């Protein structure tokens, strides 16, 4: 995944100690070694602020394989965070005519996050 420098996702990956390399795309990086970790979008939610404005957020988790149980695919959450999304742009990625609340958020998030 290519990530924009100084974005929320970029800062969280740095905090977790991932090795980030400059991409050929200007002002973007990529994760050089993910150590078996997985970035997954876990939720898409609406939040109303104190001025009654509707804000949309994507919730993410960074999961790593569980070191204690090596013979299964169990994961442990390293970090959880939310990213505010541009409602107009993000909304254009979703087909509301076939809206399903359990729709694959990761697929939508991937299209939103990649330049």
Helix count equals 3
Summarize the amount of helix as a percent range.
10-25%
Strands of the largest sheet, in order across it? Answer: 1-3-2
Taken as a percent bin, the fraction of beta residues is: 35-45%
What's the total count of β strands?
6
Integer-rounded radius of gyration = 16 Å
Q: On the 0-100 scale, what is the average pLDDT?
A: 76
Given as residue ranges, the uncertain stretches (5+ residues, pLDDT < 50) are: none
Count structural domains.
Answer: 2
Structural class: alpha+beta
Describe the biggest sheet? 3 strands, antiparallel
Oligomer: single chain
**Shape label:** globular
- The ordered H/E elements are EHEEEEEHH
| Cα end-to-end separation | 10 Å
Brief overview:
By secondary structure, the chain is of the alpha+beta class.
Structure description:
The chain has helices spanning 8-15, 87-91, 105-113, and strands spanning 2-4, 19-22, 28-33, 38-48, 54-65, 75-85. A 3-stranded antiparallel beta sheet has the order 1-3-2, with helices on one face. A hairpin with a 5-residue loop joins β4 (38-48) and β5 (54-65). It folds into 2 domains: 1-35, no CATH class; 36-107, no CATH class. With 115 residues, it is α+β, with helices and mostly antiparallel strands.
Descriptive keywords:
115 residues, alpha+beta, 2 domains, 3-stranded antiparallel sheet, 6 strands, 19% helix
